[in-house]
Amino acid sequence: MNPYLEIHPEVQQALADGKPVVALESTIIAHGMPYPQNVQTALEVEAVVRGAGAIPATIAILNGKCCVGLSQQQIEHLGQAKNVWKVSLVDMPYVISQQLDGATTVAATMRIAALAGIRVFVTGGIGGVHRGAETTMDISADLTEMGQTSVAVVSAGVKSILDIGLTLEYLETKGIPVVTFGQDAFPSFYSRQSGFASPLRLDSPKEITRLLRAKWELGLNGAVLVANPIPEKFEVPAPQMEWYITQALHAASQQHIKGKAVTPFLLKYIAEHSHGESLEANIALIKHNARLGAELAVAYTRV
Ligand code: PSU
Ligand code: MN
Fold this sequence. Notes:
By secondary structure, the protein is α/β, with parallel strands linked by helices. Helices cover 47% and strands 14% of the residues. It has a domain at 5-140 and 231-302: Indigoidine synthase domain (Indigoidine synthase fold, 3-Layer(aba) Sandwich), CATH 3.40.1790.10. It has helices at 9-16, 27-32, 37-51, 72-80, 92-97, 106-116, 133-136, 141-146, 164-173, 205-217, 238-254, 262-273, 277-302; strands at 5-7, 21-24, 55-62, 65-68, 85-87, 102-104, 120-122, 152-155, 178-181, 200-202, 224-227. Strands 1, 2, 3, 4, 5, 6, 7, 8, 9, 10 and 11 form an 11-stranded mixed sheet that branches. 50% of the residues are buried. The structure holds pseudouridine-5'-monophosphate and manganese (II) ion (MN).
């Protein structure tokens, strides 16, 4: 086994027995939501995965080890510690070799999940091509990682802090099929619509499983993005969200926020200024994604 990996015994056993396992990221815990809702949500998401018949494996770097499956204490630690790195691929060598703690982004979580042999990963929203990327070149490593690592990524689509059209173009360039579950429109995190049609639509975990098998058995490495629209009753009206996002982008530019700080800055700004409404939606959609991800993992291990 890879010496940098530390797989929780329950996860190890499930993988050895061919049971369904769902990977979960930790940047959303340490950098995407405030305490204590972050810790509570992380634990609830794990419970949803279990309820749907799969084993949850929340992934983070602790003391330089790539931990796959965390204890409740470890999740508490990530949710409260001030010195937890946000770890994308570029940060992994430093954080691991310096034996630090890091919460993993979609890109880093996917890589570690794949090393452990996990095929299904659930998150809230992926990183993508930022608005203005034609001058800043700010494109998340989530997209390049999805272009090469064979893990299904369940998300609520792409948040409109990003340029959704350019993100869909980039996904296509990288050969990443984008499948929306149960509707024709591609969703945009807080909203079931985005103004863009989904490139693909499938209506059951079984059909998505067949698409995953076909892709990977053909040697077409890389992710499939499974977009799961937020339940209607938790949607935040798009014009309202657009207002917060415009404010957040303006503040980021005024304060010269750059590089890896951009996404956490925007997320925090929006959460603080939308009076809890966006946080409530965020919590609802990640649990909704956890259920679909678990159903997908179950279907995938059955085939
Ligand atoms: N988008 C969200 N919520 C999040 C993130 C993105 O709506 O929590 C986090 C994820 O961990 C994602 C990361 O992988 O931000 C992307 O960061 P960057 O843009 O710096 O690659
Ligand atoms: Mn970036």
